[in-house]
């Protein structure tokens, strides 16, 4: 692994613009569970994730939806870990980050170039009057205290489209980069996994993950991202 980390460091040093593509595996070291592992938030759920986290459930069963996200997805005391911090450091110099994560830890780490592909949990608003709602108020009730409307987090639910501006920003970042680093994601969720199609033909691709990802031309480091990013300068 040491040799591969050295090669990754060389590619980072030589790159002009780096883009990180990240998923839940980055935030597990901050105490936030992933989705589909044996300890993930989807393990043992009473209904399919596609049903629970859908716009239909949000509007038809707001209390059920609210209980699930509050119990399983909100970790307001979580702090960025060294992976977030190292990526933020690199992005401040010459990079950008596109994340599937909805926990805002990349922004909290001081990363100035974050695209939240699936939105974030703390962009909370009323679906009736569109007014923003604080986390504290949402934690207390799924209904807006001003108008009684259903309150929701600004994350992309099953059955909803990715925001077009987010897609455009993500594609532009891919087209501008000469090095792509995939981290903490199985890279099977679309359209996120489709982003690789927009990379430059000569862009180098690395994946730092506990499992192999199914994509061509990827230099893989199979291991714990915390160890890998801790070894980078």
State the helix count.
9
Inertia-based shape: elongated
Overall mean pLDDT:
95
Most strands sheet: 6 strands, parallel
Q: So, the CATH homologous superfamily of the largest domain? A: TPP-binding domain
How do the helices and strands follow one another from N- to C-terminus?
A: HEHHHHEHEEHEHEEEH
The CATH architecture of the largest domain would be: 3-Layer(aba) Sandwich
Under CATH, the topology of the largest domain can be stated as Rossmann fold
Structural class: alpha/beta
Number of domains: 2
Number of strands: 8
Low-confidence stretches: none
Description:
With 233 residues, the chain is an alpha/beta fold. It folds into two domains: 1-32 and 80-118 and 161-233, TPP-binding domain (Rossmann fold), CATH 3.40.50.1220; 37-74 and 120-155, SIR2/SIRT2 'Small Domain' (2-Layer Sandwich). It has helices spanning 2-14, 49-52, 55-60, 62-72, 82-94, 105-108, 135-140, 164-176, 225-231; strands at residues 18-22, 95-99, 114-116, 119-126, 151-155, 179-183, 204-209, 218-222. The longest helix has 13 residues, at 2-14. It is elongated and about 55 Å long. It starts with a helix and ends with a helix.
Q: Could you give the topology of this structure?
A:
Blueprint: H1 2-14, E1 18-22, H2 49-52, H3 55-60, H4 62-72, H5 82-94, E2 95-99, H6 105-108, E3 114-116, E4 119-126, H7 135-140, E5 151-155, H8 164-176, E6 179-183, E7 204-209, E8 218-222, H9 225-231
Parallel strand pairs: 1-2, 1-6, 2-3, 6-7, 7-8
Antiparallel strand pairs: 4-5
Helix pairs in contact: 5-9
GO molecular function, one term: NAD+ binding
Pfam family, one: SIR2
Organism: Lactobacillus corticis
């Amino acid at each position: 692994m040491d040799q591969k980390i050295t090669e990754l460091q060389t590619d980072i040093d030589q790159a002009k613009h780096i883009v990180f593509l990240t998923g839940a595996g980055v935030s597990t070291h901050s105490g936030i569970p992933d989705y589909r592992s044996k300890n993930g938030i989807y393990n043992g759920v009473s209904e399919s994730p596609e049903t629970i986290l859908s716009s239909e459930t949000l509007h038809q069963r707001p209390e059920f939806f609210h209980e699930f996200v509050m119990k399983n997805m909100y970790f307001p005391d979580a702090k960025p870990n060294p992976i977030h911090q190292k990526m933020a450091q690199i992005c401040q110099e010459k990079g950008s980050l596109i994340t599937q994560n909805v926990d805002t830890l990349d922004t909290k780490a001081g990363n100035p170039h974050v695209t939240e592909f699936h939105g974030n949990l703390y962009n909370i608003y009323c679906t009736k009057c569109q007014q923003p709602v604080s986390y504290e108020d949402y934690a207390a009730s799924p209904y807006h205290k001003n108008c009684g409307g259903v309150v929701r987090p600004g994350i992309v639910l099953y059955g909803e489209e990715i925001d077009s501006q987010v897609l455009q920003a993500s594609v532009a970042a891919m087209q501008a980069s000469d090095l792509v680093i995939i981290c903490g994601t199985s890279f099977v969720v679309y359209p996120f996994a489709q982003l690789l199609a927009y990379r430059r033909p000569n862009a180098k691709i690395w994946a730092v993950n506990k499992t192999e990802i199914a994509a061509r031309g990827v230099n893989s480091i199979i291991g714990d991202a915390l160890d890998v990013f801790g070894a980078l300068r």
